[in-house]
Amino acid sequence: MVIGTFLAAMDGTIVASSYASIGSELHQLQNTSWIATGYMLTLASFQPLYGKLSDIFGRKPCLIFAYVVFALGCTMCGLARNMTELIVARAIAGIGGGGMTTIVSIIMSDIVPLRSRGTWQGLVNIVFATGSAAGAPLGGILADSIGWRWAFLVQVPATIAAIISVSIALKLPNREDSHLREKLKRVDFGGAFVLVLAILALLLGLDRGGNISWDDTITIASLTAFAGLSALFVLIETRLASEPFAPKRIVVDPALLASYLCNFFCVASSMTIIFYVSLYVQAVQNRSAANAGVALIPSIVGGVLGSLIGGLVMQATGKYYVYTVGNYACMVIGTVVVTFTTGAIVHSFAGMEIGLVLMSIGNGSGITTTLIALIANAGAGDQAVATAVSYLFRSLGSVVGLSVGSTLFQNTLRKYLHERLLGQDVDEIVHRVRESLNYVDQLEPAVRAIVRTSYEEALQATFWFAVVLSVLALVSSFFIKEKPLLHSGRD
């Protein structure tokens, strides 16, 4: 399980540090957010489904299935010939990735006493952070040396090792023995399918609006479809599904909803910051992909420290409310510092790193404490589903944060470029600098300076969006309900 957690973490930061190189090589830099959102699309839809599937089929079979699909997706990513194939491959990998972290967390909920779970979650997060720390520079180094494809292919042998180790070493009680047809009837495939379509419609609408026009017919149709599909999803989960993967009692319970919203907003904020800090390092500071990867390491260290400390504090005190509010206050401060030191006030690489560390300490600890708050407030029979739904909100936060952030960035960048560039070839320059960072270096110095300044100001708009998201996470944390943590038992 440790190997799978490590890989899931490494996969995220490998992409964060190398996506600019991928987009530039494929001449699709303006669409690189789809590399992440394609993965998160299926991740978000399948994470809560794994909660129900693991209740029905067993934790171990579902975990092995997740590893197999993830390995297949990574292989396809390494062999992709264009951006479309890469996005499809990332979506397949996301189906597997959805189970690699969710099921491990559910297994922990099964076997670890509630009061000690924060500490164990912190230890798992150390593994997660180690994978993230390895992935950030590794992705950049591979992109700068032998090619970005190896950032995906290198994960395949490790995933195979995880399959073998889990098959041999993981011993869990057998689940109920019923016919396959009866088991499948209990799975909410309809809800998952409609959720995928709804998120896809939203992403298409935001992408089309940001890159083409908000008055475009496809943009309007996509956003309208999103509204309709969202309503249908709510109907399925509340009225039609016999065993919904996001039951109404789990989602709308005020004691749980506050934690879900914290998860949504904090992950949306942190993913937006990390994704676009990497672009800032490469597009504005003109550094390499490897440098972008190294720049993310302090934030990863901050995340693991926050998570571990959060677990220890909860184990020692048996409380989480005040600490959770403090975590998100720290995150707000961190995102503001990042914004101030990337051009809003000054350009300071050291200041940016300090902001990233503060943001990640608050985010990492907040993720741990809100998970424990969820488990403490959910009934014993709902802990697996509540945990899976928390991962759904995190993934939705990633998707929405990156998608809206990308739309905001592309709109602002295009606006500034058209305002500041002069000459007959303006449209060509605007088109090509949004396709590839490599083209920027081919421009005349004066034009290059305008392009980099436009990138900087577009990034500022995106960073301020992340600040707003972190403030919403802080506000949501005020409504979390304190409940005593037990030394033993599940709840």
UniProtKB/TrEMBL annotation:
Keywords: Membrane, Transmembrane, Transmembrane helix, Transport. Its main location: membrane. GO terms for molecular function: basic amino acid transmembrane transporter activity. The chain crosses the membrane at residues 62-81, 87-108, 120-142, 148-169, 189-206, 218-236, 257-281, 293-313, 325-350, 356-379, 391-409, 461-480. Pfam families: MFS_1. Residues 1-485 form the Major facilitator superfamily (MFS) profile domain. The keyword Ion transport does not apply. One of its GO terms (cellular component) is fungal-type vacuole membrane. It is found in: Endomembrane system. It is a multi-pass membrane protein. Signal peptide: none annotated. Belongs to the major facilitator superfamily. This is Major facilitator superfamily. It comes from Heterobasidion irregulare (strain TC 32-1). The lineage of its organism: Eukaryota, Fungi, Dikarya, Basidiomycota, Agaricomycotina.
